[in-house]
Protein: PepSY domain-containing protein
Amino acid sequence: MKGKQTILAAAAIIGTSTLLFQGMVQVVTASSYNKTDIVPTSYAKSVAVPSSTTQHSLPPGYKKANYTVTAMKDQKPTSKDLTKEAAAEIGAKALWEMYALSLEGTVVEMSYQQPREDLPRAQWYGEVKINDKLNYYFMIDAVTGELFSIFRERTFIEKATYDEELAKNPQEYVDLAKKAAEKFNIVHGPVKSAVYEFQSMVENNDPLISAEITGENGEIAIVYIARKDKEFIGATYHAKNKYKDHPNSIISYPKITEPQK
Structure:
């Protein structure tokens, strides 16, 4: 119970990153106080390595940038895990491909998370702070380099309110999410369907419209589009999304979506 209370407290502060990454930052925070929340698992038996992973591809126009990689000193990846530098480079390629973001001169802050019962795959989480109004994040499988989540967090001063009319007719945003899924190959193949999920009111005043994307191969991912300017914000990939309803999940999610009638 103490671990869950710690997670809830962290979730209330994080905002958009809580919504999109669904637990990584909160668990890193909670683990500092309650080590028993982390459940060791046999990674090799739990996960099949994908036939092709992100680290083997080079996005068009990408050039390795000169950036600094840091990580928390008390985190200890295993011999099977990617180094923080290798993990950061996978994230750098993905950020370039999706946002045309070069990490030249930036600092990539990496955090490592051991496998848990509700997510039996080790994770590397990366954060790139551009300024007080723009940050980028990514989360990958620490062994294979497969993308779990990626997004950008934008902060606006003007207070945003819930758009009831848009909630009644969100199809334009669903179509944009589908196009983004196709463009970035988020479900690793053709898209079968795109369905509206919800309009989220996050504390950084950049409301998001999320759509559930289902691939013809059965993969299900979540794509986020900004309500303000219809920009692609990010995605939670099937590799992570498939664990969201685990019965023994130690993550408590904040209620920051559709307002109660």
About this structure: The first strand starts at residue 68 and ends at 71. The chain has eight helices and nine strands.
